[in-house]
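In the laboratory, one determines a bound structure by crystallizing the protein with its ligand and collecting diffraction data. In a computational setting the workflow is compressed into a single prediction: the sequence and the ligand go in, and a structural description comes out. We illustrate the idea with zinc ion.
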Amino acid sequence: MPGKKTEESAVAPHPAWRDRLRYFSEHQDQMVDTVRELAEIESPSDNKAAVDRIAVFLASRFEALGGCTQLHRSKDFGDSLQIDFPGPTPAESRHRKPILLLGHYDTVYPLGTLAAMPCKIENGRLHGPGVLDMKSGIALMLHAIEALQAWHGGLPRPVTVFLVSDEEVGSYSSRKITESLAKASAGVLVLEPAAGLRGAVKTARKGVGEYMLRVRGVAAHAGLDPGKGHSAILELARQIAVIAKLNNLRQGLSVNTGVIAGGTRTNVVAAEASADIDVRIQRAKQASGIDRKLRSLKPFDQHCKIEITGCINRLPMERTAGVAALYKKARGIASQIGWSLDEAAVGGGSDGNFTAGMGIPTLDGMGGVGEGAHAVHEFIVISELPRRALLLAGMIESV
Ligand SMILES: [Zn+2]
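The predicted complex, in structure-token form:
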């Protein structure tokens, strides 16, 4: 091939990697079946019974592979599922840190979505709610572990899988567990979807904050006493204009007022109004500044009261040396089968932000390849599954 050789392509491909790719290609249909099976168990974050159902189902799948499962009960959200696999020997299990495979089984789709958005295969793509984000990621974990066991007669090192129930709604019930498992691990692989159809892994993610601005004004009859009211809606509108000015896209800071509500009837000066605000930051050090600015908003109309609640929930996943080293390892594995694996920085947050924020080497976007996460056209590219599984298996072995 023309052009300059990269560091990895200088390494002669090892024939064993080709055999491994063949193994996964032969298991491609089974992988598709697994993704489909998982997508057909609907699991919206806000429906505890539904999320608990998929947790129990997955516990049995991982137990069948010899994993030791533990449900972390939650009262307000679904239960999260931890699975521990021992290393090849008791000494190895004691002394070698596990690698943590991180994912979530909750989705953004309400129960009944399958009726309008059924799982179907078309043009080499599997469509369905949550197939990309991130039930294919969970399927990859199952099949990579199964393959490693077939190749080595057991796992070559201890592995911990943690699947959370509430990632799509902020991971409030699972965050502490994620962080403590990450702390005990050699590294974290997040099986969230890859970035774009080229399947890049994610080495940086923005931090995410959610805020709510509530305005209380003074109600009045719009016809009889128009001058007596102090409109919460007008005050909110003025605040929204101020908030929009906080955007600094060049520095990777964005603020979006995504939802507004307020008022009761056209003939009433509104007593209440509110706005939900999404904040994204590129660097951890931007968190306190934007937080302070939002908290110091002052009412234009002295008769209106404003109150802001919320916080930066996920700090950015920054491309630290540990993250870069994992990416380099992944790139080296991919090059064994002639695959040039890209990296990407993305605006969305994941639980990988928590683990990377603690300084634990984290590589995200290790999951399925497709488009349309959270949207009606969500799909994965079926032919990408084998090499994604190969990459995951290789990373489990070598990190
Ligand atoms: Zn996700």
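Residues 1-11 have pLDDT under 50 and may be disordered. Keep in mind that any predicted model is a hypothesis to be tested, not a measurement.
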